[in-house]
Specification:
heterodimer; A: 256 residues; alpha+beta; Alpha-Beta Plaits; four-stranded mixed β-sheet; two-stranded antiparallel sheet; globular; B: 477 residues; 16 helices
Chain lengths: 256, 477
């Protein structure tokens, strides 16, 4: 899974470090674009509903989105690209991290994930600008404030108590459902073992009806995601490999 | 003083040219010049106060009310959206820092290079630096999502031991702007001391006199005080030049260090510095025209030669800017990066292509077509119009770099067009605040450095060599 770095002066050190702990495989041949993952992620992570006007302007806040593009052809021969769920790639070499002036965008050493500390964020939005995948969403308004949106009172029980509700002026993004990771880790620790692959999964992977999204351990060669990637070596690729971000999500090319 | 007399650049005077058209050869007694400057400072008419009131109301509504709305509701009231996380506020930051470059350039570099015609307008340009930086700083705060937590970006020791991340170009930016603001304020203050002392001695008792007394720190004009002051000013004049070049280079790194197509270019540093001087020189031309046409007696101080100097600098900087702009295109042309190409195509052929053509026209064609002519350079209103056009062009240039350029990124799915919303009144507010500060300052600060003018006039003289009148300059030091 490690990316080869042929830049002068870069040794294999980066390559070795880039194994990672948690990862994902997304098979674009299996994805039907049903957006169940988008809905599940929003429910699990208390992602704000921005309303018609802001969503129309392009301020949707989903942590995962299904991308589909037209290949450039004239009308009757239009060919659509395969669906591509796009979410935070949890880069090992994340461009969003060094640009944050207050350490709100940080790398978790224990989980080897790319995290956003909501209550540290001051809202410079540099990380969003520097993210090549454009997967960070900013809280443009207080979408979850009941004083502004009284109708939210009826949705109290819908909120996930394990996840912070974000306020305005804060950047947020996919966390690989870190609340689920921590739950599984705590459970495994109390039982005196390591977390097993497949013991739990993220909301998007759980909701996917065709199992296009698979989540698991990257550092375990026997894990499901490593096996899927090994079976399809010709289809596997990383999004925007040329930016050298060493992402943790492997896509399996669709439509070949 | 007059140990060494050498002819000036324009010494081979033709018969018809009257040396008295130059301020340095048209001396007035010190007392008279002091009185002229003081009179210009104190004489106001109702129109001045009406304009001041309108500006103050504008500032109150835009920077007061609109900013309140922006803070309380969130950045959603602005036009920023997913691919364009940075909008007009950042354009304003770059623009105002650019304006602020001219002051230091004129007062430090022209002082070091001993360009004599700079003498009467150094102060006016330095004030622009300080007030322009105020607008830049405010614009940074407008841009922040949670502005009430700004102090988290300052390196203040705290119980959690969280230090700001100095990897971030924003931190370099913060340090550079703060350094520049402090240095330029001190550099504004040092040459101001003798003039403040002059104003102190000519003001009746009252709060203003107390104000001058405190600020002039007891300056009496003794030999020793002048020696110390000149030494300090010389040190600052040399020391502030690298600060000036570094600050806009670092501002450009906010963009150049990011990995976005169209931004990550190594030419951005010098290109931004030249861009800053381009808009700054033009702004000096506007301000000098306004001062000359509104302030009493300033026609004596601000003459054709001053506008000629500014005009020549504008032309020079415009050519340098054109070169760097072309250079900025060469990098993607030779690099062949597909995303860089897409950004360029979008700026040239996209829905906002008219901005790009306007920018090229007013930034290159207009100054090149007008400023080659000395007659036109010496016409203040014409120079001011060119200055306004250049500033519009430079604003568009930053607008193209920031919100237009980032529309195109590596994820075509997110491409969306940015449109400014609450940014428009707040941008007007920064312009109003700049003018307001400048107008109020023109009532309490002598905008002409009288001592500097007089120093120059003492050193210059017209000598007769044979029958020719030759202007000479004694070495000052």
């Amino acid at each position: 899974m490690a990316t080869e770095l042929e830049m002068p002066g870069i040794t294999n050190q980066v390559e070795e470090e880039a194994v990672g702990r948690w990862g994902m495989v997304i098979d674009q041949d299996l994805c039907t674009g049903c957006q169940a993952c988008v809905a599940a992620c929003s429910m699990e992570n208390n992602v704000a509903i921005v309303g018609e006007e802001d969503a129309g302007y392009g301020r949707y806040m989903h942590w995962i989105r299904i991308e589909r593009l037209w290949e450039k052809k004239d009308y009757p021969e239009v060919k659509m690209t395969p669906f591509q769920p796009m979410l935070c790639q949890h880069c090992h070499n994340a461009p969003c991290e060094p640009v944050c002036p207050v350490y709100a965008s940080v790398h978790s050493m224990s989980e080897d994930l790319n995290l956003q500390v909501y209550n540290r964020c001051v809202g410079t939005r540099y990380c969003g600008n520097n993210c090549p995948y454009q997967v960070r969403s900013f809280n443009w308004r207080d979408y979850n404030d009941e004083r502004i949106h009284p109708e939210l009172v009826t949705l109290h029980n819908q909120m996930n108590p394990d996840v912070t509700v974000r306020r305005r002026g804060v950047m947020e993004k996919c966390t690989f459902c870190i609340q689920r990771i921590h739950k599984a880790e705590d459970k495994a620790k109390s039982e005196g073992r390591d977390v097993q692959d497949g013991e739990f999964t993220t909301a998007c992977a759980q909701a996917c009806p065709t199992n296009a999204i698979t989540f698991g351990r990257l550092d375990d060669p026997e894990s499901q995601i490593n096996q899927i990637a090994a079976v399809n070596p010709s289809r596997a690729y990383h999004a925007l490999e040329e930016v050298r971000t060493l992402p943790r999500i492997t896509y399996l090319k669709g439509g070949v | 003083m007059a140990t060494l007399a050498k002819p000036l650049g324009r010494s081979h005077t033709e018969e018809h040219e009257d040396p008295r058209q130059y301020l340095m050869h048209d001396p007035l007694p010190r007392g008279q010049m002091n009185a002229m400057v003081m009179e210009a400072m104190h004489e106001t008419n109702p129109i001045f106060w009406v304009i001041t009131g309108i500006l103050a109301l504008t500032v109150l509504f835009t920077l007061g009310y609109d900013w309140y709305v922006l803070i309380m509701v969130g950045q959603g009231t602005a036009g920023v959206l997913r691919p364009d996380y940075w909008g007009v506020f950042l354009v304003n930051v770059v623009f105002w820092i650019g304006i602020s470059h001219a002051g230091t350039f004129i007062s430090a570099i022209l002082r070091v290079l001993k360009i004599e015609s700079r003498r009467p307008f150094t102060r006016a340009a330095e004030l622009m630096t300080t007030f322009g930086l105020v607008q830049a700083g405010l614009s940074v705060f407008m841009h922040l999502g949670r502005v009430w937590l700004t102090y988290w970006m300052f390196p203040i020791p705290n119980e959690r031991r969280i230090w700001p991340d100095f990897h971030s170009p924003l931190m370099w930016d913060l340090m550079a702007i703060t350094t520049y603001l402090l240095c330029s304020t001190m550099y504004l203050f040092l040459p101001l001391i003798p003039d403040l002392a002059m104003a102190r001695d000519r003001t009746k008792e009252g709060w203003l006199k107390q104000f001058y007394k405190i600020l002039s720190i007891g300056f009496r004009g003794t030999e020793g005080e002048w020696k110390n002051l000149t030494t300090a000013m010389n040190i600052f004049a040399f020391a502030i030049i690298p600060v000036m070049f570094s600050v806009h280079t670092i501002v450009s790194w906010d963009f150049a260090m990011a990995s976005r197509p169209g931004w990550s270019s190594t030419v951005f540093g010098p290109y931004f510095v030249i861009g800053a001087l381009h808009s700054g020189m033009a702004a000096v031309a506007i301000v000098l025209f306004l001062l000359r046409s509104t302030m009493k007696h300033y026609k004596y101080f601000l003459r054709a030669e001053q506008f000629n100097t500014i005009g020549m600098l504008m032309l020079l900087v415009s050519m340098a800017w054109a070169y760097f702009y072309f250079n900025d295109y060469i990098v993607p042309w030779y690099g062949g990066d597909v995303w860089d190409k897409l950004v360029q195509e979008y700026t040239e052929k996209g829905p906002l292509a008219y901005l790009w053509y306007t920018m090229l026209f007013v930034n290159i064609v207009v100054p090149w077509a007008t400023l080659w002519n000395q007659k036109w350079r010496e016409t203040p209103w014409l120079l001011a119009i060119v200055g306004v056009l250049i500033n519009i062009g430079m604003y568009i240039e930053r607008y193209i770099i920031i919100p237009v350029g980032v529309t195109i990124n590596r994820m075509p799915f997110t491409w969306r067009q940015y449109e400014p919303r609450i940014e428009v009144p707040m941008t007007i507010g920064t312009f109003a605040l700049f003018l307001l500060l400048y107008m109020l300052a023109s009532r309490i600060i002598p905008l002409i450095p009288v001592w500097e003018v007089q120093e120059g006039q003492e050193a210059h003289m017209i000598r007769k060599i044979g029958k020719a009148e030759v202007s000479t300059l004694s070495d000052l030091e």
